[in-house]
Amino acid sequence: MRLRRKDTQAVEMQMGPMIDMVFLLLVFFMVSAKPIKQESDVNIGLPGTVAQEEVLDIPDEQRIKIDASGQVILNDQPIDSPQSPDLPNLTATLKRFKESADANKSEALVTIDADDQANHQRIVTVLNACAVAKITGVTFADSAAEEE
After folding, report:
1. Fewer CB within 10 Å of terminal CB in the chain, N or C?
2. Is 91:143 a contact under the CB 8 Å cutoff?
């Protein structure tokens, strides 16, 4: 008895559907993957002045006294020399005071107490230092009220 061989067909793998499936998987993984942040996109907060959410109770008034010799005294501490024409230390201190007041959301106030014998140019120089520091709340002390 002779066995007949069945004609077997060669099995071929269909490439068209396989390529479609690979592209669908590729698209799926591309869409579902999270993008990686670049290093330049990372937000870094450097130390410095930080704005406060609530107002802090700090002394928000600086008292500047000008005596008859032209010496400027800020909060009972002599600052700059009487011969200094532009008061650089006072200007720098007032700028820091203004930045601190702005960070604490309070108004920067300066009271100028000038001696009756003080040079008027020295008073104008102190006012200019306040203007450079962008302090607008400047008042003059009433010397008659202090003597009482």
Report:
1. N
2. no
Who contacts 95 (Cβ-Cβ below 8 Å, separation ≥6)?
132, 133
Domains of the chain: 61-133 (3.30.420)
Contacts of 93 (CB under 8 A, 6+ apart): 74, 79
Are the beta carbons of 68 and 118 closer than 8 angstroms? yes
- Pair 73, 64: CB distance under 8 Å: yes
- Give the span between the Cα atoms of 83 and 122, in whole angstroms: 10
Q: Over the stretch 46-88, which tens digit does the pLDDT of each residue have? A: 666 666 566 555 556 889 999 988 899 888 888 888 888 888 8
Q: Output the CA–CA distances (angstroms, integers) from residue 142 to 113, 114, 126, in the order listed.
A: 8, 9, 17
Phi and psi dihedrals of 46, rounded to 5?
-85, 150
